[in-house]
Amino acid sequence: MPQEKTSTPALSPDINPEAGVQTDALDLIATAVLLLDRDLRLRQLNAAAESLFAMSPRHVLGQRLVELFFDSALLEEKLAVTIQSGRGFSDQSLRLTRPGHEPLLLNCIVTPFEPGPGVLQQGGLVLEFRHIEQQLRHEREEQRLTQHEANRVLIRNLAHEIKNPLGGLRGSAQLLERELDRPELREYTQVIIKEADRLQMLMDRLLAPHRMVQRAPVNIHEVCERVRSLILAEFPSGIRVVRDYDVSLPEFQGDREQLIQAVLNITRNASQALLASPTPEGGARITLRTRAAWQTSIAGRTCRLALELQVVDNGPGIAAELRERIFLPLVSGREGGTGLGLTLAQSFVQNHRGMIECESQPGRTAFRVLFPL
To answer: Which tens digit of pLDDT belongs to each residue from 258-272?
Structure first.
């Protein structure tokens, strides 16, 4: 059965006898587009593809995909089948990596097209790519917000239930201690009193994020400098804290004490991880970096301008099994840790309508804190 000549409606390309699809027409498309011939060699790409894949037409035209992306062998197999069958396909989670660049997670739509004039006179394939990292990030944000709200309710109720009997427990131990004649028995009542006090302090920390935010103009660099001085005092040797500030950032309305505590918790975690592992090449280092972020998403809202604070360390990284759970209460990768530091940091940041993200691999862990301006 003869095939009808088809075109790609989404692209609406103009055909030129010499050049095939006009580059100007492709450049009007916001998504990245690659045109391959039947030998799966790259013949044309638009400006969005140049930007997404960081490649220049002068250097890549005429090359096969496996020469451009070192993890594209499976994709080439699918494309070869498409050439033979004439049926396109889509891949909702395609990963492609350019040599020397970070991997890209993409949505890919492949459409075959009929022979035409110019360089694509034998026909070929249209590959349309959308970067889905932003979509996945939104999904992670929503999941994290829902999870955090459930944690807040659970923690608040649990803390109140624990606090109520603690006072009676401590008071009873004190009364019992007065009735004991033997000093060695008083050691046991002291254990009860001290443990009750420790639990009381733990419950106070759990309930701390729920107090009202005391808003006033805050300079993020004053917060960073305060945290830096505290870290250097707590860890006087072995850790270097590097400043990388954008001093043009404006003040914003916030609770200075909550912000200091949030940044301190993140930075202290990084310091403890650095000291608990072999010293990295070049020495243990934490970088406090501030920047302006434009048109970014925070907790599902698009902000025209945001303040970005990064706490970056060159430590061993976060264990893979903990990466998705580090903000949950009582989850800690350190022996003796309470697992509350990052939970409280997240609560304090969300009190300011902000959010925390984390990326970690051996040699680089980065916590990215965003506040809308």
So the answer is: 899 899 999 998 898
- 193's CB contacts (< 8 A; 6+ apart) are 170, 173, 174, 177
CATH code for the part of the protein at 213-372: 3.30.565.10
The pTM for the full model equals: 0.56
Amino acid in the structure at residue 153: V
Residue 216: beta bridge partners? Answer: 254
R_g of the chain computed on alpha carbons:
29
Q: Give CA–CA dist 29/351, Å, rounded.
A: 40
Write down the domain spans for the chain. 15-131, 136-209, 213-372
- What count of other Cβ atoms lies within 10 Å of the Cβ of residue 137? 12
Residue 149 phi, psi (nearest 5): -65, -40
For domain 15-131, the CATH class is alpha beta
| pLDDT per residue as tens digits for the range 220-245 | 999 999 999 889 888 877 889 999 99
Q: Mind spelling out the 3-state secondary structure of the chain?
A: CCCCCCCCCCCCCCEECCCEECHHHHHCCCCEEEEEECCCEEEEECHHHHHHHCCCHHHHCCCEHHHHCCCCHHHHHHHHHHHHHCCCEEEEEEEECCCCCCCEEEEEEEEEECCCCHHHCCCEEEEEEEECHHHHHHHHHHHHHHHHHHHHHHHHHHHHHHHHHHHHHHHHHHHHHHHCCCHHHHHHHHHHHHHHHHHHHHHHHHHHHHCCCCCEEECHHHHHHHHHHHHHHHCCCCEEEEEECCCCCCCEEECHHHHHHHHHHHHHHHHHHHHCCCCCCCCEEEEEEEEEEEEEEECCEEEEEEEEEEEEECCCCCCHHHCCCCCCCCCCCCCCCCCCHHHHHHHHHHHCCCEEEEEEECCEEEEEEEEEC
Q: Are the beta carbons of 215 and 255 closer than 8 angstroms?
A: yes
Nearest to 211 by CA among 267, 261, 150: 261
What is the C-alpha to C-alpha distance for residues 155 and 207, in angstroms, rounded to an integer? 8
Distant-in-sequence, close-in-space partners of 57: CB < 8 Å, separation ≥ 6: 44, 45, 50
Asked if the domains 15-131 and 213-372 are classified in one and the same CATH topology, the answer is no
